[in-house]
Write a structure and sequence with these properties.
This protein is of the alpha+beta class. It has 6 helices and 10 strands; from the N terminus they run H-E-H-E-H-H-E-E-H-E-E-E-E-E-E-H. The chain is about 25% helix and about 30% strand.
């Protein structure tokens, strides 16, 4: 499950980008990296719980390589800051709540750019299929960008909306199979995660 979530959320270094010896949280960005507490002001904007569950991991970092920035590079972004909280839930379900921002000197990050980024990542994956883009409304953020796709048996949703100085993203992956969780269970978890992310700031 964690591998399928990473395949869809390739920009979210909180899931797969370990800091190198050259990683520095401030100054010129010369290396991708993340670690717990790197950007506490961004981590503070993540929900402390999802329902009754505390996150499995919480960390933050920055991306500056072409591989991590992908389509954001074409928008002039050379330094992307982020924080992410991950929940590995029972019954083969995973959730990521993240916030993204650009530092002074970079173009102000737009929600549309992050939506573009996630869609490009999904379409480039060899395992994603039935990609559906919609703009539903949720209590709190209102109208959002939502990408739904199937990756093997993992049904995945990415939800993006603008916030105050940041862009919010929620990613939910649910393993669907007979006798397991259903699409209705997946949609309920998406709603819970969006509301928790909105409430946290």
């Amino acid at each position: 499950m964690r591998r399928t979530l990473v395949a869809l959320a390739i920009a979210l270094c909180a899931l797969g980008c370990q800091p190198s010896a050259s990683f520095q949280p401030e100054g010129a960005c010369v290396a991708d990296g993340r670690a717990a507490g790197t950007y506490p002001e961004l981590e503070a904007r993540l929900p402390p719980r999802l329902g009754e569950a505390a996150p499995t991991t919480v960390d933050s970092g920055r991306s500056c390589s072409d591989a991590k920035l992908s389509t954001l590079r074409t928008r002039g972004v050379a330094d992307l800051r982020f924080a992410g909280a991950t929940w590995d839930l029972p019954r083969e379900q995973s959730v990521v709540v993240a916030v993204f921002a650009t530092p002074p000197g970079q173009p102000p990050l737009e929600a549309g750019w992050m939506s573009e980024f996630y869609e490009a990542g999904a379409r480039q994956s060899t395992k994603t299929e039935n990609i559906d883009i919609s703009h539903p409304s949720y209590e709190g953020p209102g109208e959002v960008y939502q990408l739904d796709t199937l990756n093997d048996l993992s049904f995945q949703s990415v939800i993006v909306w603008p916030g105050s100085g940041v862009v919010h993203a929620v990613i939910v992956a649910t393993q669907l199979h007979p006798g397991g969780l259903s699409r209705a269970d997946h949609d309920a978890e998406v709603k819970l995660a969006v509301e928790a992310a909105w409430g946290a700031g």
